[in-house]
Amino acid sequence: MAEEYLGIKDAAKYLKVSISTLRRWEKKGLITPMRTAGNRRRYTVRQLDDMLGLNTQKELGAVARRGLVIGYCRVSSSGQKADLERQAEVVANYCEKQGYQFRIIKDIGSGMNYKKKGLQELLRLVCEGGCSKIVVNYKDRLVRFGYELIETVCEEHNVDIEIINQTDDISYEEELREDVLAIITVFSAKLYGKRSHRNEQIVAENRKLFSKDDKKETKDSN
C-alpha cells in the first residue's frame, strides 16, 4: 500500500494546529518531515497519527488545549477594578451558557498599550496554538486601535474572536477621551518637541475642550 504524504498546510489541518505550531514542533525535534527536491515539507499520515498518539499534556500541550476559549477583559486604570470584575462576570456567564471550556484573562491598561501583560499572554496563546477562540464583551476591550491587525493574527492561527455586544460601549467614553488626548500628545510632541511651549499649549487647549464637552453633557442630562 502506497504511503500518503501531506504538505504542511494539510498536515496542520489534519492535526488541527497552526502551521507555525507544526514548524515549532519540527525545531524541537518532535516531528521531522521529509523534503522534496524543491525543499518542501512532506509528512506521512502515519507520522501525524503518531503525533496524535503522544502524551499531549506533556509534549503537545497546544493540541490538548486547542478547544480552550479565552475570555479577555480590560479596563484602563486600577481605579476601575470593580468594572473589571463586572466585565469578567459578564464574559464568564456568557462562556458558561455557550458550554465553553474557558479561562479569563484580566488586564489593566490603555487600549493603545500593546505591551500589557494580559494582552501579551493572550497573543502568546494564540500564536502557540493554546486557544481556539477569544471572547470579549465589547470590541474595544481587546484594543482601541489596530483591531484588524489582531484579527489577522488570529485568523492565521485559526482562532476566532467572538464579541458579545456589537454596539459601542458608551460606559467608557472617558477612557476614549483619554486615549484621544494621548494620541494628540504623542503627535504634538513629535512635531513641536515634548517640552516646547507650542506642544504644552496644544495639549492644554485640547484638555480644556474635552473638559467643556463633559460639562455640556452633564448640563444637558440635567
Automatic annotation (TrEMBL):
Keyword Cell cycle found: no
Matches recorded under InterPro entries: DNA-bd_dom_put_sf, IS607_transposase-like, MerR-type_HTH_dom, Recombinase/Transposase-rel, Recombinase_CS, Resolv_N, Resolvase-like_N_sf, Transpos_IS607
Keywords, alphabetical: DNA integration, DNA recombination, DNA-binding
UniProt keyword Amino-acid biosynthesis, yes or no: no
GO biological process assignments: DNA integration; DNA recombination
Pfam families named among the record's database cross-references: MerR (PF00376), Resolvase (PF00239)
Catalytic residues, chain numbering: S76
UniProt domain Resolvase/invertase-type recombinase catalytic: residue ranges: 68-210
MF annotations from Gene Ontology: DNA binding
Domain HTH merR-type: 5-61
SMART domains: HTH_MERR (SM00422), Resolvase (SM00857)
Gene3D superfamilies with a match to the protein in the record: 1.10.1660.10, 1.10.287.2170, Resolvase, N-terminal catalytic domain (3.40.50.1390)
Identification of the protein by name: IS607 family transposase
Species the sequence originates in: Lactobacillus delbrueckii subsp. lactis
Upper classification of the organism: Bacteria, Bacillati, Bacillota, Bacilli, Lactobacillales
